[in-house]
């Protein structure tokens, strides 16, 4: 769950767990444990409150950013082998071409992506020959660059 926890609504009332991306940790604390969590010095408590505020801004940004549906809106040029209800928004496997993919198109996609310095997109044939991982603090600019590349590639190579 940690790879896609911040990508969709989650009922946090069921958990007492910490979460966060690289460099940031958020602790989800039940109300009855809140007093126990802040038994530290006032200085440390101010630091916690500042961290919560910044993480709140980050979570609001994630909520408002939404996501592109490039694969599902590509008229089956890109095909995800995972049923929509089971997909991660952070790990995105896909093929290019109807169902099992077109080896030549996928090789061309990966070669063109490499020329644009998009690395580690090669996946495994069983789950999508192409695999984009968008977590661990991947910058939004990189996600937008990949989305633009995918749109342009599909226009140039429609089956």
From TrEMBL:
Membrane spanning stretches: none
Q: Which GO terms describe its biological process?
A: L-serine biosynthetic process
UniProt-recorded name of the protein: Phosphoserine aminotransferase
Pathway entry? Amino-acid biosynthesis; L-serine biosynthesis; L-serine from 3-phospho-D-glycerate: step 2/3
Cofactors per UniProt? pyridoxal 5'-phosphate
The organism named in the record is Aotus nancymaae (Ma's night monkey)
User: What Gene3D superfamilies has UniProt attached to this entry?
Assistant: Aspartate Aminotransferase, domain 1, Type I PLP-dependent aspartate aminotransferase-like (Major domain)
Keywords assigned by UniProt? Answer: Amino-acid biosynthesis, Aminotransferase, Pyridoxal phosphate, Serine biosynthesis, Transferase
tRNA-binding among keywords: no
**Protein family membership:** Belongs to the class-V pyridoxal-phosphate-dependent aminotransferase family. SerC subfamily.
EC assignment: the record states 2.6.1.52
- Which GO-annotated molecular functions does the record name? O-phospho-L-serine:2-oxoglutarate aminotransferase activity; pyridoxal phosphate binding
Query: Where is it found, in Gene Ontology cellular component terms?
Result: cytoplasm
């Amino acid at each position: 769950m940690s790879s896609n926890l911040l990508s969709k609504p989650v009922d946090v009332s069921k958990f007492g767990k910490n979460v966060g991306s690289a460099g940031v940790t958020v602790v989800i604390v039940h109300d009855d444990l809140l007093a126990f969590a802040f038994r530290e010095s006032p200085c440390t408590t101010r630091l916690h409150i500042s961290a919560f505020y910044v993480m709140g801004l980050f979570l609001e940004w994630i909520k408002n950013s939404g996501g592109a549906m490039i694969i599902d809106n590509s008229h089956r040029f890109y095909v995800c082998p995972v049923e929509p209800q089971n997909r991660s928004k952070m790990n995105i496997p896909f093929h290019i071409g109807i169902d099992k993919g077109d080896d030549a198109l996928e090789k061309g996609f990966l070669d063109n992506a490499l020329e644009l310095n998009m690395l580690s997109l090669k996946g495994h044939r069983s789950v999508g020959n192409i695999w984009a991982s968008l977590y661990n603090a991947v910058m939004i600019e990189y996600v937008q660059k990949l989305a633009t590349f995918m749109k342009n590639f599909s226009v140039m190579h429609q089956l």
